[in-house]
Design a protein that fits this description.
- It is a single chain.
- The model has no long low-confidence stretch (mean pLDDT 83).
- The chain is extended, with a radius of gyration of 20 Å.
- It has helices at residues 34-46, 52-70, 78-83.
- The chain has 86 residues and is mostly helical.
- Helices cover 44% and strands 0% of the residues.
- It has a domain at 49-73.
Amino acid sequence: MAKKKNTKAGVSRSGSTVSSSLRRKHRTAFLLNEKEKEAIESYCKKNKIRNKSKFMRETLMRTVMDHFLEDYPTLFDKKDMDKIKI
């Protein structure tokens, strides 16, 4: 019987500790059409991306965080902020 790597709560496979709040517990799935799938396959092959799940998660979260930063509530309206020169 093969030995399992240490995957106890709080310890990752690499041996580093992982906060329980950062542990991924929620699965999200989405569907792609043939052209979208081919585009991702081609991109991953060209850029030597082996872990597509990590790539898609990081890409999605980067986009979400960019939008959060752009839409961050400010004291002044956007048009007023655009008038201010730095």
